[in-house]
């Protein structure tokens, strides 16, 4: 995660931006947490969408089993992922989006994907790190997200100073796509509320 944090810091420097609104999704939310804990001075606001927190033994076992499946059976794991990330109704009514994201998953460099997923599978939360986040923070997740649950998000919100939580109604893991209108409105409002601080 230090490597990802350095990459993001270098990007901000390269673009000659003083401060940013940072939105992290899923594994990206873990990266955003690490970045915010170290470089709060670079942030105006922080959004953590669909982030894990304090997984149970059973939840850890599920992602470990998923990791083993990904190693051996890509087509099966890719389809299962999309069915975890979207509701059946959305997939049925938006086959084109399903196919587009499936195509993106197939184009992933498998070895790089496994490296990142291994980080995700073995991730251990650090409450001390979360205590170091000193940025207005919004935590969001889909109502029916099975991997980054509403309970996780509520508990994560309690651990971060100046954090608030909003649940995306009817959403799953990719509620930012399935419930795009609601999601975008929530993010836009949060950024606008923190805009003056930039």
Folded structure, characterized:
This protein is α/β, with parallel strands linked by helices. Helices cover 59% and strands 13% of the residues. The protein has 11 helices and 4 strands; from the N terminus they run αβαβααααααβαβαα. It has helices at 2-14, 27-38, 57-72, 74-85, 88-93, 95-107, 110-121, 127-131, 150-159, 175-178, 180-193; strands at 20-25, 43-49, 137-142, 163-168. It has a 4-stranded parallel β-sheet, with helices on both faces. Helix 9 (150-159) links the parallel strand 3 and strand 4. Helix 3 (57-72) packs antiparallel against helix 7 (110-121) and helix 4 (74-85) crosses helix 6. The longest helix is centred in the first third of the chain and has 16 residues, at 57-72. The two termini are 26 Å apart. The model has no long low-confidence stretch (mean pLDDT 93).
Blueprint of the fold:
Layout lengths: L1 H13 L5 E6 L1 H12 L4 E7 L7 H16 L1 H12 L2 H6 L1 H13 L2 H12 L5 H5 L5 E6 L7 H10 L3 E6 L6 H4 L1 H14 L5
Parallel strand pairs: 1-2, 2-3, 3-4
In short:
The protein has helices at 2-14, 27-38, 57-72, 74-85, 88-93, 95-107, 110-121, 127-131, 150-159, 175-178, 180-193; strands at 20-25, 43-49, 137-142, 163-168. It is an alpha/beta fold. It is globular, with a radius of gyration of 17 Å.
Name the helicity range.
55-70%
Mean pLDDT: 93
Q: Secondary-structure element order, as H and E?
A: HEHEHHHHHHEHEHH
Q: What's the total helix number?
A: 11
The CA-CA distance between the termini, in Å, is 26 Å
The backbone outline, from C-alpha atoms, is globular
The largest β sheet comes out as: 4 strands, parallel
Provide the gyration radius in Å. Answer: 17 Å
Physical arrangement of strands within the biggest beta sheet: 1-2-3-4
Assembly form of the protein: single chain
Low-confidence stretches: none
Question: What's the count of strands?
Answer: 4
Class of secondary structure makeup:
alpha/beta
How much strand content do the residues show?
5-15%
